[in-house]
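Just curious. Protein, please.
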Amino acid sequence: MLIFGVTLVTFTLTNLVPADPAQAALGERAASDPAVVAEFRKAQGLDKPVVVQYFVYLAHLLQGNLGVSTQTHNPVSQDLAVAFPATAELAIFVIVFSIIIGIGLGLFAALRHNRFSDQLIRIFSLGGISIPTFWLALAVFYIFFYQLHWAPGSGRLDPAAQAPPTVTGMYTVDALLAGQWDTFWDALSHLALPGLVLTLYTVGLLIRFARSAVLDILGLDYVTAARAKGLSSRRVVFGYTLRGALLPILTIVGLAFGSLLSGTVLTEQVFSWGGIGQYAYKAATTLDLPAVMGVGLIVGLVYIITNFVIDVIYGLVDPRVRVQ
């Protein structure tokens, strides 16, 4: 039912765009010929009523057909099969480091409440979520690539490098599976700059929520009782305090990971990453309706699956959720 709702919302919003897809796809010269425009609209099914177009779209969708992109002239499913692993590779890289750094610093800041280290971490967190991502991406690219030459430029691999045999579509994983260590390090080095930009924002977000969640737990009776029993500080912090604070933290982690998997448009565009974000940007600017609807469907599925996984993890972390 949720997937049906996603298709309905995506199709409706796409068709509400006040522009002519024939004009965007054909260009000014071809669009001036009524015969060419009529042929294009017939080929794309745009000559039918909107309701009929939706049910035709659903029928094709049930067969695994997302349509053909007007910008690449490839099946949208084929384009997404290439773009999604690129975004997934970047998202996994970012979320792993963000969880380790963000939750770690948030926990430390809460335990050092109102001390100098807490204030310093809060300033860092505020900076991470306040700096515009597109500006940070441009600044990082200019400094570390153009000025210092510490990291490679745009793309997922050097132009002379050959992509590893496709298994998952993620170059680092596929290179490891193929035993191509040079390709692995090349792909990992290209992850550094876009990963740094997205990690700074995600870490800033997780620090704030982790700190707030831990502070709420620190004053509860069962934490005080654990300390009174003479348990070690390590066990009190990790066995009682952090575990009790995990539910709200997991919610933010799920939302952040879903956002990363949905495609970080500006960052991918700056670094020419070739993922969902860049694909969606090109589809939107060229009014490529099949591609836009394909991306919308993928984004909806990403959030549905992410929320389901987070709900399952809730039950593993908190026994009260399992009882309910």
